[in-house]
Amino acid sequence: MIRDWIDFALERNDVGYLSSMIRVRWNNRFIRKFADAGYGACPPRGQIRISPFIWERATTEQRRETIIHEACHIVAFHLHGPAIKPHGAEWKVAMANCGVEPVRCHDIPLIGINHFNVRDCPKAERCIVSRLDFAALKRGGLLHCTLCGLTVSSEQVEA
């Protein structure tokens, strides 16, 4: 399915010959961004890295649009060079050729991946703690609700 979406984007932009030069990798370190793309010009090669955690939550349409989005980055860099803006006019043309709206960010909920709910917060209905706060906790810091600032204990966090 992923390869089909990549090939679709390449064919719609008349660079189908790049298909065998693009690798797809899962990246367990991605907890905020859904995916990214990289391109090397000599020899032409591209790589798309995807978060398995966010992929699991995404709808088929969100997955499709994200893969096409990243493939269009490779198309734009291949056709216009690495000096272009990542979400500039060249990338937008590549996205339009695929019939996909050029949107920069996903709207997939990250609760449980990058953020965690706080139980029984007295200040707000839906308080959250970020994953980065847990790193601070290990260094002796305190956990704080990202929305209201209240100090919370690790026992209050829903994992």
Structure description:
It is built from 5 helices and 7 strands. By secondary structure, it is α+β, with helices and mostly antiparallel strands. A 3-stranded mixed beta sheet has the order 1-3-2. α1 (2-12) crosses α3. A hairpin with a 6-residue loop joins β6 and β7 (151-152).
Q: In CATH terms, what is the architecture of the largest domain?
A: 2-Layer Sandwich
Total beta strands: 7
Outline the low-pLDDT stretches.
none
- Largest sheet: spatial strand order: 1-3-2
Q: Per the principal axes of the C-alpha atoms, what is the gross shape?
A: elongated
Order of helical and strand elements: HEEEHHHEEHEE
What topology does this entry show?
Elements: H1 2-12, E1 22-26, E2 35-40, E3 45-50, H2 52-57, H3 60-80, H4 89-97, E4 115-117, E5 128-130, H5 131-138, E6 143-144, E7 151-152
Parallel strand pairs: 1-3
Antiparallel strand pairs: 2-3, 4-5, 6-7
Helix pairs in contact: 1-3, 3-4
Keywords for this structure?
159 residues; alpha+beta; 2 domains; 3-stranded mixed beta sheet; two-stranded antiparallel ribbon; 7 strands
Q: What's a concise summary of this model?
A:
The chain has helices spanning 2-12, 52-57, 60-80, 89-97, 131-138, and strands spanning 22-26, 35-40, 45-50, 115-117, 128-130, 143-144, 151-152.
